[in-house]
Amino acid sequence: MRGASPHYSAWSLLRARIKGHGYWQPLWTGHKLQEAYDVVIVGAGGHGLATAFHLARDHGIKRIAILEKRLVGYGNVGRNTTIVRSNYLLPENHYFYEDSLRRWATLSRDLNYNVMYSPRGVLDLALSEDEMSKAARRGNAMRLAGIDAELLDRAALKRYCPELDTQRARRFPIVGALLQRRGGTVRHDAVAWGYARAASALGVDIIEDCEVTGVRSTAGMASGVETTRGYVEAERIVFATAGHTAMIGSMLGVPLPIETHLLQAMVTEPIKPLLNTVLVYVYPGHGETYICQSDRGGLVMGGMLDGFPSYTREGRWDRMEDVVEGAVDLLPHIAGCKILRHWAGTNDMTMDGSPIMDRLRYDNVFVNAGWCYGGFKAIPASGAAFATFVATGSAPDLIKAYRLSRFTTGHLLDERGGGPFPVRL
């Protein structure tokens, strides 16, 4: 990816791009694949890039390669609705995501690249007094952990979000909301570019168009990876291949409690500023809609999973219809907006809705996977904690609960309130 100086006209930039003028500078440099590395990371998405950055910056590891089948940021880091938050119920999750949210607030400075963190607030709407009680429970758990949470009644919600007409007659009336003011949005592609730029500046080799096809082992330890560009030796191997982790498990002969499902998002044509927060709306009988307005003016929307395993990235039309129906029910005045585009990301869904961060088959092979709905918002905390795990061999307390063994021992983290589920905790 290349960036340009802002004071040139659009025509001069186009002319410079065609002529290959020096105005354009690479954000990260291409490298030749070496024969051996200290750490090989498979996957140049948010988690792989962040792990490489922290391995180089915090642990001083010099020989690191990121191997990417396609392009940097081609996967889920560039296919999401950009929402960040830490409004989880279970302690294992809300402490982890709170660490991530705190890191989002300083990430632009840490990377020296503007990721456009916007703490515009996240509102989980309640449609009954029963839901208000459950929202209060989650809010109280957050506050006991030192995480900001506010329970808003209908009048307070109207003051905070006047564009949402809480008095309008609805089949399911809005009675209040749980608000996390520090939640909000981050520019997703800027996250990929910022981490790639910062990691490259620290000497990390980012190798695109390089697919990993196998793992070699010697004396009970992984010795390297087979790729479409040849064999690469590695002292440690990290898999961060969101949406394709079950295939990695098959490659290593380890069945994983993961299914790959599609999660859609869509954006409207640009309109004038309308919505200055993130609305999350779960309505019985249909599903969920979450909606915010991007810096370009488009209304970005998402909802529940499409509901069947797939790698296609071709979302169901009826799911898009459900999401749009919910958005129009919330904000009737957007009914005339045109959908500009829609897309689907491939999500690694675990059986309890929480991630897996552990070794896989070999002591020197690590997997960072199963993020369900939380992958994008988790990137900063995941990168820092997983880098410590890979560098030292010891998992930090922040991620110990995410061991693969919990599915055998029964210590599950069933966070049904942490993502787009029709049942709320």
Describe this structure as you would to a colleague.
The chain has helices spanning 10-19, 46-59, 91-111, 129-144, 154-160, 188-201, 245-252, 317-330, 379-392, 406-409, and strands spanning 2-3, 25-26, 36-42, 64-67, 83-84, 122-126, 150-153, 176-180, 184-185, 205-207, 212-218, 221-227, 230-239, 258-268, 278-283, 287-293, 299-309, 339-350, 356-360, 362-369. It is an alpha+beta fold. The chain has two domains: 32-117 and 183-257 and 351-425, 3-Layer(bba) Sandwich (FAD/NAD(P)-binding domain), CATH 3.50.50.60; 118-182 and 260-350, D-Amino Acid Oxidase, subunit A, domain 2 (D-Amino Acid Oxidase, Chain A, domain 2). The strands form four sheets. Strands 3, 4, 10, 11, 12, 13, 19 and 20 form an eight-stranded mixed β-sheet that branches. Strands 7-8-6-15-16-17-14-18 form an eight-stranded mixed β-sheet. A two-stranded antiparallel ribbon has the order 1-2. Helix 3 (91-111) packs across helix 9 (379-392).
